[in-house]
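Handout, page 2. Input:
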Amino acid sequence: MPVLTTGPRDPTGPRHLTLDNGLHLVGVRRPGSPLAALRLRIDIGSADEAPGEHGLAHVLEHLVVRCSMGGGRVADGALVEAATGRPHTSYDALVRTGDIATAGDVLGAAFRQLRPDTRDLADELAAIRRERAQRTADVRWRVQEAMFAALCPDTPYAHPVLGDPRTVDALTPEDVHRLHSRWYHPSRATLVIGSDRVDEELAALAERARLWAPGHPRTESRAAAPPPDGHAVVSEAVGAGRRAVAVGFTEPGAPCGADAGFALARRSVRAARGIDVLRLRLRSHTCTWVMLAATDEPAAVRSVAAALRAVRELLLGPDGAALLRTEALIPELRAAEDIQRSVADATDATDATDATDASDASDRIPASRPTTATGVGELADAIARWQQGFAAALPEGPAT
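Output:
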């Protein structure tokens, strides 16, 4: 029998349980909440696609919801929300506490044999074509994807999650079954639940999850080559002498700033200068980037570096503590109370080597709960590292 454990330093922290089939369960206490949040994360994303498979992880996400999960409807009408990213695919449900078992069974259906009929496949491929048309019409999406291609050349992280339309449209039901059999297995998954009675619910969910064994054995998937350490700035003209610009950099291992520090620094920069710093963990590496409008790429890089320098000076000045408290810490503490946010955070905290799709904010910005012990010095240091990372995208090298 698996054993329920907590982190050695925090007996009130998340509960962890690993089943014989390899599924990792995590429970997060949310006292007094009438709702429960569940997230099933499969450690398969577009970065696991080989040449000739680009876009197929996203197709599987659509078909799992439609076919395996019966459309993703839980109990009295709650719907499963799904998203495919570069490192992961996730399925989320927010339900009443009385519907936790039902929601767990719906999510667990992801591991059943997937054999869509031709009509289901055709309908979902049509939906994906509409999604692609909407995304590609957005200049920000195009520039962001061009940035990933520039930052991660010759790696599986370079291509968009939506993939190659020719590959996607040529998919057959037999291809779907083969890919699902190769990729979806409990040992590649983490299920997190946030609820009022988490110990009781986690134990009950574990008993049900033992019935989720898939109808196929686990097979090994290829390891995604890591992106190189580097910097990139890309842009596209938007008219009136302006360009949409993305500036980003990748770094190995731990990102710039701990999770809580990142969230607070991000809020401080956004409040003081209107710039949103984004982050995506690419397993062994982390990508950090910003998007803005500027006359040209060098002007954009200099603008970001100057803004970060100004925010750092504000934080280290006489009003820095007030800025941190009112514009960052208090809003972040309020946001951290959201039950779905806490479940997303706990899912990200289970990563051992993963330092979600760039369109999914919860994957971009995983954050542990901030505390009043997070000081202006810690935030200023993180911002200084961002400044250095972004400024290095200039041809002449880092700016001071």
